[in-house]
């Protein structure tokens, strides 16, 4: 019996080690490997996620989120899905202006750390457990590059957002100015991993700067949004382009 339990323990240790390192690799994961790596990574970094964000962005992340909420421009009482909601920062900002957020994330660790008071759901945001045209708006903060299929995500947004509803999507960007781009590359690629390594998980904060490579060009994302039913989709550079914001209104006619 003791030998059997030892074997189980050893097997569990191996599985846990594998899970803990699923994002610690030289090449960026794709497909189902990416889904697993992203979920496990955010489970691991959830406890100190907010602290690291505040430090590494010099609190600019709070300004970017509030800009997204203002851009959403929905009346008080509107129901808004905050997708890949993390620890609920955007949900708190949405509640401050009288909106009714729902926190949705694939990571249980992140949802467990959410103190926004918003209703929470663990779900794959490419397959939302929501009826068609059932919400007034959607926000998503710094998660587009973590999705395996961005076009499928945009199509899902078009499905759940009512005609006339609004979306506001934030993510990291690539500055157009050469000097800012150079400085941001050094900071994001070299300094941020060291900050994350000291305060949280080193491998996660090596992965996150490299994950920018997943993002298509802004013009491609705008074209994709317009194609699925957000005809007025726009792209904005924030803080010199180190962050980007996509916003759009759901067309009056539903896609078939």
What's the quaternary structure here? single chain
Which structural category do the helix and sheet elements fall into?
A: alpha/beta
CATH topology: Rossmann fold
Q: According to CATH, what is the class? A: Alpha Beta
Described by the principal axes of the CA atoms, the overall outline is: globular
Total E-strand runs: 7
Instruction: Tally the structural domains.
Output: 1
CATH architecture: 3-Layer(aba) Sandwich
Number of helices: 10
Helix content: 40-55%
Element string (H = helix, E = strand): HHHHEHEHEEHEHHHEE
At the fourth level of CATH, the homologous superfamily is Vaccinia Virus protein VP39
Q: What is the percentage of strand-forming residues?
A: 15-25%
Estimated radius of gyration: 19 Å
Sheet with the most strands, sense and barrel status: 7 strands, mixed
Spatial strand arrangement across the major sheet: 3-2-1-4-5-7-6
Summarize model confidence as the mean pLDDT: 89
Q: How would you sum up this structure, described in words?
A:
A 7-stranded mixed β-sheet has the order 3-2-1-4-5-7-6, with helices on both faces. It has a single domain, classed as Rossmann fold (3-Layer(aba) Sandwich), CATH 3.40.50. Helix content is 48%, strand content 18%. The chain is of the alpha/beta class and 256 residues long. It is built from 10 helices and 7 strands. The protein is globular, with a radius of gyration of 19 Å. The protein has helices spanning 2-20, 31-45, 49-57, 60-72, 89-96, 108-112, 150-160, 178-199, 202-210, 218-228; strands spanning 79-83, 100-105, 120-122, 135-141, 161-172, 234-238, 243-249. The N and C termini lie far apart (59 Å). Helix 6 (108-112) links the parallel strand 2 (100-105) and strand 3. Helix 3 packs antiparallel against helix 8 (178-199), helix 4 packs across helix 5 and helix 8 runs antiparallel to helix 9 (202-210).
């Amino acid at each position: 019996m003791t030998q059997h339990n030892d074997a189980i323990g050893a097997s569990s240790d191996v599985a846990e080690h594998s899970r803990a390192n699923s994002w610690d690799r030289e090449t960026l994961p794709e497909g189902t490997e990416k889904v697993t790596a992203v979920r496990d990574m955010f489970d691991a970094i959830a406890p100190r996620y907010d602290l690291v964000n505040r430090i590494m962005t010099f609190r600019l992340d709070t300004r970017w989120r509030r800009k997204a909420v203002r851009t959403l421009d929905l009346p008080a009482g509107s129901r808004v899905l905050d997708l890949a909601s993390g620890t609920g920062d955007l949900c708190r900002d949405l509640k401050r202006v009288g909106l009714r957020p729902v926190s949705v994330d694939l990571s249980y660790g992140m949802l467990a750390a959410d103190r926004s008071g918003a209703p929470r759901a663990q779900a794959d945001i490419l397959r939302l457990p929501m009826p068609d045209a059932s919400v007034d708006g959607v926000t998503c903060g710094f998660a587009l590059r973590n999705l395996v299929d961005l076009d499928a995500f945009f199509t899902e947004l078009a499905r759940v957002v009512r005609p006339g509803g609004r979306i506001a999507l934030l993510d990291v960007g690539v500055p157009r100015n050469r000097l800012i781009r150079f400085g941001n590359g050094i900071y994001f690629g070299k300094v941020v991993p060291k900050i994350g390594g000291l305060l949280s998980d080193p491998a996660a904060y090596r992965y996150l700067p490299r994950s920018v490579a997943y993002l298509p060009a802004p013009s491609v994302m705008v074209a994709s949004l317009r194609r699925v039913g957000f005809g007025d989709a726009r792209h904005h550079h924030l803080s010199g382009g180190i962050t980007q914001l996509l916003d759009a209104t759901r067309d009056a006619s539903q896609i078939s």
